[in-house]
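As a warm-up, study this chain.
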Amino acid sequence: MEPFARQLWRRLETIHAVTYFAPESLAAAQDLGVRGFWRMYFGFRAAPLGRCTAPVVTAAFSGFAPSMVTRAVPQIWELAEPAAYLRARERAVAAALERLGGSALRTIPDWVLETLTAAAAAASPAGRPLYAANRELPLPPDPTSRVWQLATTLREHRGDGHVALWVTLGLTPIEVAVLFVATAGTTRASLQTNRGWSDPEWERGRASLAARGLLDATGATVRGRELRAAVEADTDRLADAPFDGLSAQDRERLVTALDPLAAAITRAGAIPYPNPMGLHPARC
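Now compare it with the structure written out below.
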């Protein structure tokens, strides 16, 4: 059975990912004068960090080829200020979730929002730029926008911890991407294209992993698979920290309470599978 932190991530990631795949988001970005999916993506996700530079976004997001980031940043800030992106994404995701979630959204118990609010405020922001930036945003009064913002803050907390673990192991973003694909995290077609890595960069990543003994001609070695599994387990451990005070029963209740909304989003076809996040369909 999956640990609680990973079960929760699958639900929260499904809710969060609506931001980037829903047509409401592209429409909201276009209203700002922002054209193109990736300008919308970088503008919406980086906005909590403020008017940051391409190297800052590359470092905080990790996983993306620097050349891909520089095609959008800092130009996105010339099109609209970070505060405008924040308002647009909140408006867009509220409309998208209302459309996709229906009754599942309206029946989320108040205690779920209270639990996620407490968890989102509980962790240390040290070393977690995207979590810290999202945690500092005022929580929207509207329950729909609030559940999305809480899901986003907590998924960025998990993501920041995940990046830190790979950094401590000395793996570069392209090496992490290649190993992720080699251990069946997602497909190369999905990850390489959506993270902007060229074929030569990908092959250099493969060669570097092979030199480390993590990859061979057939795919990930035993050592490579064990390393990936260890990082995922440690990611779960770090992501569990905000929920330290939650009983086993309440953890199960929380996951179960989020199931209907995640399943409704999946049934609506709002998120493509496979995807670069390695997210699998929610239970329907």
